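User: I'm curious whether this sequence folds into something compact or stays loose and floppy. Could you predict its structure so I can see for myself?
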Amino acid sequence: MRRRPSRRLLGVLAAVTVALSLFTPASTAGAAPAATPTATSADRAAGAAAQPLSTSTPVVFVHGYTGSAANWVTAMSVFRLNGWSSSKLFAYEYDSYGDNITNAQGLASFVDTVKSRTGASKVALVNHSMGGLVSQYYLKVLGGNTSVSHLASIAGANHGTTFASACLIYTTCRQMYPGSSFIAQITSGDETPGDTQYATWYSACDGVILPYTSTRLTGATNNLVACQTHIGFLADTVVLGRIARFVAS
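Assistant: Here's the prediction. I'll summarize afterward.
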């Protein structure tokens, strides 16, 4: 006759099962920085990233001060994982030491080229840091909002940053300093003009955008990330995934 396992053995097996369950990896959404009081729904959305999104909207990435197209390697990878083809992802480069008015005019020409190449009537813009100033001038002053379906600003210097005091010898940095005539021009009146959908992502741990609330735009969906550094945003796949889903909305 087969002997039944002792109660002690059954107890050990049960304890092992519980221990293993405690160390089972959580979903990637669980590791995401909390964004707002609605973080629970945002995390559920992050978990849905396994189901690629399909979109035909071209995306133009706009780097920050001293940045380049190389800043967007991770972001483009995340967008491809969410359904974009490489032929719909573009990075605009400009002169960080020149003039943001000229840079915005260059962005306007770049967007027109992307629209012509892809056949799309509108593009989505994703910017970082000083790229927020370039984008806002294009949308508000140059009327670019008619060509932009979505704008996602990541740690954008949308209302300036006192950090720019370190480089005031350059026009772009003087324009980026709070209270500049450039800032006044892009923030007066409606900060989110047209039918474009606007969203921002910002964090108290930024360290470069000072004050960190400078990124917020009146009329936009402003997402507070629990703690992320200014450059860290560019490698934050959770935030970038949320931005991809925002652009696909």
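Summary: The chain is about 35% helix and 15% strand. The chain has a mean pLDDT of 84.
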